[in-house]
Amino acid sequence: MVCRGWSSQRGFTLIDMVVVIAVVGILSAIGIPTMMGGIDRMRLGQSVREVERELQMAKSRAVAKGRPIRVRFNCPVAGQYRIVELIGSPTTPAAADNAANRCSDTTYPYPAGDANPTTRPNLDGPIRRLDSAVSFSAVQTVEFWPDGTAHHNPAGSTNPWPLIPVAGITISLARQGTTSAITINGLGKIHLQ
Q1: Where are the domains of the chain?
Q2: pLDDT in tens, 144-181
Q3: Would you call 95 helix, strand, or coil by DSSP?
Q4: Of 2, 130, 162, 178, which has the most beta carbons under 10 Å away?
């Protein structure tokens, strides 16, 4: 004997599906811009940390090797930066140190062509590149001395370069309207903001 009762049909109606799609659409419209902003901040943060590590490396190299080391930004082109050994001395830099091709990997290769400590430069680093959507918005070349102090030359004509003021200088990076900064003071302290 077969019992006949309620016959239930399982599944979703067209109205159920439209409501679910509408809810997913609304949540996506709210969440995707927030998620993209988070990704932009992460990529900017990664670039800032990479620049900060390069500054720390330059300071460490200057102290360890007893040679002044500079970090040049937008060198050789925008969005690139490089650690370069000062050619000459802080009081009398060689003319080659200020040449337009100083950041050229062809003219000044990494690693150096020889390991002879009497020829310079031997301590240049590789050319580093920022994320393609990140750019430097405020930069100055920074010079670290063997005692760990940091110097810069805002006027562009003083030798040796003066000590960075106590308040420090700022290197800013930007991505999609968001900016992050690194501050360096005369004692060589490097701080992410």
Answers
A1: 34-192
A2: 999 999 999 887 778 899 999 999 999 999 998 889 99
A3: helix
A4: 130
User: Rounded to an integer, what distance in angstroms lies between the CA atom of residue 83 and that of residue 102?
Assistant: 11
Rounded distance between C-alpha atoms, residue 11 and residue 130, angstroms: 52
Contact 62, 148 (CB under 8 A): yes
Task: Name the phi and psi angles at 172, rounded to 5.
Answer: -110, 145
3 vs 7, 9, 10, 68, CA distance in Å? 11, 17, 19, 95
Would you say 60 and 123 are in contact if contact means Cβ atoms under 8 Å apart? Answer: no
Asked if 74 and 139 touch (Cβ cutoff 8 Å), the reply is: yes
Q: Can you say whether the dihedral through the CA atoms of 144, 64, 56, 126 is positive or negative? A: positive
Question: Burial level of 30, CB count in 10 A (0-12/13-18/19+)?
Answer: exposed
How does DSSP assign 9-24, residue by residue? Answer: --S--HHHHHHHHHHH
Q: What is the CATH number of domain 34-192?
A: 3.55.40.10
Q: What is the value of pTM for the model shown?
A: 0.80
**Helix ranges (DSSP H) in the chain:** 14-65
Give the number of C-alpha atoms closer than 13 A to the C-alpha of residue 144, restricted to the C-beta side. 29
**3-state SS assignment for residue 51:** helix
Report the distance separating Cα 31 and Cα 63, nearest Å: 48
The region, left, alpha or beta by phi > 0 then psi within -120 to 50, assigned to residue 60 is alpha
